[in-house]
Specification:
single chain; alpha+beta; binds flavin-adenine dinucleotide; Enolase-like, domain 1; oxidoreductase; 12 strands; FAD-bd_PCMH; flavoprotein; FAD binding domain-containing protein; 3 domains; FAD-bd_PCMH_sub2; 5-stranded antiparallel beta sheet
Length: 299
């Protein structure tokens, strides 16, 4: 259907830069009148809900080939921010080195959205369900601010409050591999609780990556919790309590209390902050209880 004159005037111009530098140049020139677009699945909901205005210029990052793809690079898995959630889900490299992230993206929206939605868009969203997994995986983000590359951890990004004048150029997950000669084993858990089984916004999202000795002693542990509009945070107090210990009843009770204390979700029309706190604490404790060798068979 043809647009009338008024609609044409309101329609944004779509630009397809060929390089990161060109994209940043456009953003610098037009400022808040321009927005980077990736899969546009989040932007579209914001425009439709009226929570963000349709800008005059859309800078389509899909035209920059170097922003897509998953590769092994200097001891890390480097994921281009334009990589779709579907491609993350089917990546052999991620399945081998970061199954936690594969599990997280599998739980985001449905196929049709995941085919368009990108990991970068989810990260920039800040409360995206992939972010707790990236925090638990100790992922690093690479940004370009127009003059230089900037690096920060996913954890630092989530806890920051600045808007994004920068371009996300890479998401890097350190390669962790099981050492066949070691008696430690890596484990991970991702849990998302929503208002229905699938294709649902999250109320609470919990991601855990750890390493345990044969007897269950935890040698590494990173726990992150988010969900809804709650900024994902690392549960450092629970980690400190459990590291170096076998998660028994008393230890897990303390970890439960620590999550209640440190996780600060928001109340919204769907769930109270207390419900979310208890859910997060239960998810953390259940995941750690079930990975312990003495409890696994009872699970
Ligand atoms: C029906 C539906 C269900 C959904 N369910 C979920 C869900 O379960 N969990 C969840 O987490 N999300 C969900 N979403 C939200 C959204 O789809 C995802 O978060 C998605 O990953 C966003 O990616 P995108 O590529 O579409 O981002 P876009 O909408 O293109 O962009 C999102 C933001 O990121 C910015 N941006 C994108 N790439 C870059 C970059 N490289 N550098 C700087 N800024 C950038 C954009 O300017 C914009 O501000 C859902 C959306 C819909 C429509």
């Amino acid at each position: 259907m043809a647009l009338n004159q008024e609609e044409l005037l309101r329609s944004p111009a779509v630009w397809q830069p060929r390089s990161i530098e060109e994209a940043i140049g456009m953003k610098e020139e037009w400022g808040s009148a321009a927005v980077y677009t990736a899969g546009s699945t989040l932007l579209r909901t914001q425009w439709e809900a009226g929570t963000a205005a349709m800008p005059r210029h859309l800078i389509d990052l899909g035209s920059i080939a170097s922003l897509s793809g998953i590769r092994e690079e200097e001891g890390a898995i480097a994921i281009g921010p334009m990589t779709t959630l579907t491609d993350c889900r089917s990546s052999g490299l991620l399945a081998e080195h970061a199954p936690l992230l594969v599990d997280a993206v599998r739980n985001i929206a449905g196929w049709s959205v995941r085919n368009l939605a990108t990991l970068g868009g989810n990260v920039v969203y800040r409360v995206g369900d992939a972010v707790p997994a990236l925090i638990a995986l100790n992922a690093k983000l690479e940004w370009h601010d127009g003059s230089r590359l900037l690096f920060e951890s996913a954890e630092e990004w989530a806890s920051s409050s600045y808007a994004v004048p920068r371009l996300l150029t890479s998401i890097r997950i350190p390669c962790e591999e099981d050492d066949p000669t070691s008696n430690t084993k890596r484990f991970f858990a991702f849990h998302k609780v929503g208002r229905r089984e699938a294709f649902t916004p999250s109320l609470v999202t919990v991601a855990i990556q750890g390493e345990a000795e044969e007897d269950g002693t935890l040698t590494k542990l990173r726990i992150a919790a988010g969900g809804g509009q709650t900024t994902p945070v690392r549960m450092t107090r629970a980690e400190e309590l459990l590291l170096g210990a076998k998660p028994d009843g008393a230890g897990l009770q303390q970890a439960f209390e620590a999550v209640l204390e440190q996780y600060e979700p928001r109340t919204d029309p769907f769930a109270t902050d207390l419900y979310r706190k208890r859910t997060a604490a239960n998810l953390v404790v259940a995941a750690l209880w079930s990975q312990s060798p003495s409890n696994a068979s009872k699970g």
